[in-house]
Design a protein that fits this description.
By secondary structure, the protein is an alpha/beta fold. It contains 19 helices and seven strands. 64% of the residues lie in helices and 7% in strands. The strands form two sheets. It has a five-stranded mixed sheet, with helices on both faces. It has a two-stranded antiparallel ribbon with strand order 1-2. Helix 4 packs antiparallel against helix 5, helix 4 runs parallel beside helix 7 and helix 12 runs parallel beside helix 14. It is globular. The N terminus is likely disordered.
């Protein structure tokens, strides 16, 4: 009886630690300042919901007149419908990012539980990793379209390993997935094409060939639909130019050489998990793993080729590491059913210790993030005292949600940097006709001179808002109004 009560208390303590980590992570995901990639996908959808036209001043054209076509339209269209339903705001946007990620994690691990039948503790380990590790859960802290990665992987796994076959699974699921992939991002297409190739290479059959062909057909059909839609509204050239500008794009901080394989600190941990699963699967001769080599080849192929391919045609950094980390996580689950005894105790202890550290880290950051959120509201309140709604404001990305919600037109890209995107002239970043419309600038003190010089005209400083921390005076914000 005592043993049972002790075990029950132990499980509740584990649950409390995991719940605390997830709550603190959710708080950080909601409060963390917005950034360029997040706004790049939110703004076209927000403008479509608020104005009825898919335009954006957060992308390369920075024009309120030209239709947006700088990327694949999946996320903006999702946000347009979402904002129509719930209204516009940072909380609503982050809620959608988190909802998509959490739904994908649930679908992915539901497939793992039904197909691979691991014990409960590996599932807990995987779910916590998928929500908290940089390689897998980064999309909710630095919100990007990777929030749908788990959802797409769950879809792919379902039709690849489907136990119940039928018309939909064999003939519709794969082409439909290909179309959806093409509407969300070109890098998804390469990743799932590699996964399909691995599946066929290690299980060559008529069915896997047809599923791979169906995926390829869907990708082609998605590209054709996208081309027809963009040509019809006259923005196909914009899409091609914006995508082509990433080719050969190199920044000083982009990992090169062997550094490509460690762009996030948790990748060694995931490599260890994958190796443990492989060892367990090979050691357990009583189980059948006829197709378990598919995820191993997928993980190896992703680890070897994804950094090289993305690095050669664009930019490879932490936000793309999920393409390596997710197959590694899947590898672990093919061997997880064989783990028991002391392995169970060791990994549960490591998990709980890691979650305690993560919880402390998140908890330590929350007060500072709350102060930053309050300061952004202070900027909006100060601006409202002398700037009418509908005015054009040049401000950095962290202020986007508050200023748009207050009724201002926001231009977050006011400094052209031709090194960032080859193929675009400086005026494409901020057309001269638009510069004259901007009547207010909100910027950090050290950036003010360069921004005001680029916009031209005479300006006067109307307000100064100190940084949330006295130790960071470089983050003081200044508000300038055109004379």
């Amino acid at each position: 009886m005592a043993m049972s009560e002790t075990g029950s208390a132990w499980r509740w303590w584990h649950a409390a630690v995991i719940a605390s980590a997830l709550l603190l992570a959710a708080g950080q995901a909601i409060l963390i300042p917005s950034w360029c990639d997040e706004i790049a996908y939110v703004d076209p959808g927000a403008q479509l919901a608020l104005t009825g036209r898919m335009v954006s001043t957060a992308w390369l054209t920075n024009s309120p007149e030209a239709l947006w076509g700088s990327s694949n339209p999946g996320m903006p269209l999702l946000f347009a419908g979402w904002f129509k339903l719930l209204g516009f705001g940072q909380l609503q946007a982050r809620l959608l990012f988190c909802l998509l990620h959490f739904t994908g994690v649930w679908c992915f691990f539901r497939w793992v539980r039904l197909r691979l039948d691991p014990k409960p503790w590996p599932l807990v380990l995987g779910i916590a990793s998928a929500l908290l590790l940089p390689s897998l859960g980064n999309a909710i802290f630095q919100a990007r379209l990777e929030c749908i990665a788990f959802l797409l992987c769950a879809w792919f796994l379902h039709y690849t390993y489907a136990e119940v076959r039928g018309l939909f699974v064999d003939w519709l699921a794969a082409p439909a997935l290909g179309i959806v992939i093409m509407f969300f991002g070109l890098h998804f297409a390469g990743f799932f094409a590699l996964a399909a190739l691995c599946a066929f290479a290690l299980s060559p059959s008529r069915r896997t060939f047809l599923l791979g062909a169906g995926l390829a057909l869907g990708l082609v059909a998605g590209m054709a639909i996208l081309w027809a839609a963009y040509v019809r509204v006259g923005i196909w050239e914009t899409f091609v130019a914006a995508r082509a500008c990433h080719y050969g794009r190199v920044l000083d901080w982009v990992p090169v050489g062997w550094r490509r394989y460690s762009v996030t600190s948790d990748l060694p941990w995931l490599v260890l998990l994958a190796g443990l699963g492989l060892f367990s699967a090979m050691a357990d001769s009583g189980r059948r793993f006829a197709r378990s080599w598919i995820p191993w080849l997928w993980a190896l192929g992703a680890f070897c080729f994804v950094p090289v391919l993305i690095g050669s045609v664009g930019i490879y950094y932490g936000n793309y590491s999920w393409m390596v980390a997710l197959p590694m996580m899947l590898c672990f689950y093919f061997g997880a059913p064989s783990l028991a005894g002391r392995w169970h105790t060791a990994f549960i202890s490591i998990l709980v210790l890691g979650l305690v550290v993560v919880s402390f880290k998140f908890g330590k950051r929350l007060p500072g993030l709350a102060k930053e959120a309050a300061r952004r509201q202070q900027v909006t309140a100060t601006l409202a005292t002398f700037m009418p709604k509908g005015g054009a404001v040049a401000a950095d990305f962290p202020l986007y949600y508050q200023l748009v919600d207050a009724g201002y037109r926001v231009y977050p890209r006011v400094k052209a940097d031709e090194g960032l995107c080859l193929g675009f002239e400086q005026d494409h970043f901020l057309p001269k006709a638009v510069r004259g419309q901007i009547s207010c600038v909100v910027t950090k003190k050290q950036d003010a001179a360069a921004i005001l010089s680029g916009l031209g005209g005479e300006w006067r400083m109307s307000a100064e808002i100190p940084a949330a921390s006295a130790r960071q005076p470089q983050d003081d914000l200044q508000i300038f109004v055109r004379k």
